[in-house]
């Protein structure tokens, strides 16, 4: 929920911490991965990658440092409750996260929250179908156009969302 609502970008340490990656090799070592795999066809891939990854330790995950707060705040059942819990945390991370949420399209936050919450009970096919249907609908909204204007046309990063606050979704997702 945290990643979906905030758009937090994962670095290598975060990806390893979350289990989205198993090994880290720096960009300048990627050619070595191909060579090592080709030179050791009898070795398991994991063993070959471990040899390369051991030379390149990764810094600590920023996400791991705030994991308890992420779980506390984003485990809430509603956006309003997430914001309330972030206010109660009263930490620099919580303040920055609140600022990120406040800058986002209220409509997009609602949509994302509902999609992720309902997605827990759906198959992958159903999730992808809901996202496709929603995308077709969303690209016709004023907020989509305003987001494109603010990010790509004027590049002022100052969108004016319509409505400016959350008010509940009017169409089923």
Short description:
This protein is mainly α.
Written account of the structure:
The protein is mostly helical. The protein has a domain at 106-173. Helices cover 62% and strands 0% of the residues. The protein contains 11 helices and no strands. The chain has helices spanning 2-6, 12-18, 30-39, 45-53, 62-65, 67-74, 79-89, 92-103, 106-119, 124-138, 142-153. Helix 7 packs antiparallel against helix 8. The longest helix is centred in the C-terminal third of the chain and has 15 residues, at 124-138. The chain is globular. The mean pLDDT is 89.
Question: Could you tell me how far the N terminus lies from the C terminus, measured between alpha carbons in angstroms?
Answer: 17 Å
Instruction: Give the strand content.
Output: under 5%
Order of helices and strands: HHHHHHHHHHH
| Contiguous helical run count | 11
Unreliable stretches (pLDDT < 50, length at least 5) are: none
* Rg from Cα: 20 Å
- Assign the structural class, choosing from mainly alpha, mainly beta, alpha/beta, alpha+beta, or little secondary structure: mainly alpha
How many DSSP E strands? Answer: 0
* Structural shape: globular
Look at the structure and give the mean pLDDT: 89
In helices, the fraction of residues equals: 55-70%
Biggest sheet overview? none
């Amino acid at each position: 929920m945290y990643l979906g609502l905030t758009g937090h970008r994962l670095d290598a340490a975060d990806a390893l911490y979350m289990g989205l990656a198993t090994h880290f090799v720096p960009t300048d070592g990627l050619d070595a991965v191909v060579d090592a795999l080709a030179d050791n066809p009898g070795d398991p891939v994991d063993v070959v990658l471990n040899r390369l990854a051991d030379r390149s330790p990764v810094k600590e995950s920023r996400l791991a440092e705030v994991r308890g707060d992420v779980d506390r705040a984003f485990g809430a059942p509603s956006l309003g409750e997430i914001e309330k819990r972030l206010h109660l945390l009263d930490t620099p991370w919580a303040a920055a996260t609140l600022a990120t949420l406040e800058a986002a399209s209220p409509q997009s936050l609602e949509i994302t929250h509902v999609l992720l919450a309902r997605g827990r009970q759906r198959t992958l096919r159903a999730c992808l179908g809901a996202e496709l249907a929603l995308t077709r609908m969303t690209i016709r909204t004023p907020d989509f156009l305003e987001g494109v204007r603010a990010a790509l046309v004027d590049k002022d990063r100052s969108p004016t969302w319509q409505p400016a606050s959350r008010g509940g979704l009017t169409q089923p997702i």
